[in-house]
Design brief:
With 265 residues, the protein is of the alpha+beta class. It has 2 domains: 63 residues, no CATH class; 198 residues, Muramoyl-pentapeptide Carboxypeptidase, domain 2 (2-Layer Sandwich). The protein contains 9 helices and 11 strands. The strands form 4 sheets. A 4-stranded mixed sheet has the order 5-11-9-10, covered by helices on one side. It starts with a helix and ends with a strand. 35% of the residues are buried. Bound molecules: zinc ion. Zinc ion binds next to strand 5.
Length: 265
């Protein structure tokens, strides 16, 4: 009995951490399984139906009550992986949504056919509810973008990591090396995600500095964007040394030589 309760508790925690609403849907299914005497197969099916209806129909409407809107699924601004949508990790406030779409439009005007891939944004509900593992993504005002890449020498709209994180543009020997500095200070989590991500064809990718810098310049040009995080060695390598808006995020965060984080005021 105790073990069963613990397992249910663990599932609720994991689903809430990953999707925010999944834990509540699980609890609803657990209660209806008891009340309606459903089989495990039927309650699993109920879970998926309620979860999918909530994710694609209900949540995008309800989240607007707290000024959170889903980012587009298709087009010039899109998620790198469909899991970002399926897990409800693509919500921002109206202002950030408008800014992001505007930048993606400018990007694809400059580079026809090019798209901006977004990564984790925020959950749909509650100010102060963080989106693990990004503790600051809790107010609808933060968004991560993937870098742009060449794949086998051609400009590509995909990325070397399936989730956008964890395949790094590491510091060269002569550059400042925060992954090393943070590791030595005991911040084991700083580059930890790199150990989890498969790197099947990552050697076919090279970061496209020109297109990635274009995105960063567009972010810099928007007065409502208050901070941008990229790893200090890339800030230097890509010629952004003088830009005060581009900050170091600190060793308590994670490496930012695989994506761009930005936030509005
Ligand atoms: Zn971020």
């Amino acid at each position: 009995m105790v073990i069963r309760v613990f397992i249910h508790f663990l599932v609720v925690v994991i689903l809430t951490t990953l999707t925010q609403v999944g834990g509540i849907v699980y609890l609803i299914c657990l209660i209806s399984k008891r009340k309606l005497q459903l089989s495990v197969a039927k309650s699993l099916a109920t879970f998926f139906v309620i979860y999918l209806v909530s994710t694609f129909l209900l949540i995008p409407l309800l989240s607007q009550l707290g000024d959170r809107r889903p980012l587009p699924i298709f087009g010039k601004l899109r998620p790198l992986t469909f899991w970002t949508i399926a897990l409800n990790r693509h919500y921002v406030n109206t202002e950030l949504k408008d800014i992001s779409i505007e930048i993606a439009n400018q990007f694809s005007e400059e580079y026809p056919g090019s798209k901006i891939n977004y990564l984790d944004a925020n959950f749909p509900f509650f100010r102060g509810f963080p989106l693990p593992p990004h503790l600051s993504h809790d107010d609808g005002k933060k968004l991560d973008l993937a870098f742009s890449y060449f794949k086998r020498g051609e400009r590509s709209n995909s990325a070397p990591s399936i989730i956008g994180y964890g395949v790094y543009e590491s510091p060269m020997e002569t550059e400042i090396n925060y992954p090393d500095i943070c590791q030595k200070q005991g911040y084991w989590q700083y580059g930890f995600i790199g150990n989890l991500i498969p790197k099947w064809d990552s050697e076919q990718y090279v970061v496209d500095q020109e297109r990635t810098s274009f995105i960063i310049n567009e972010l810099l040009a928007k007065s409502d964007i208050s901070k941008i995080f990229i790893e200090p060695h890339l800030k230097q390598r890509w010629g952004f040394d003088r830009e005060n808006k581009i900050r170091f995020h600190g060793c308590q965060a994670v490496r930012h030589d695989d994506h761009i984080h930005f936030q509005i005021k």
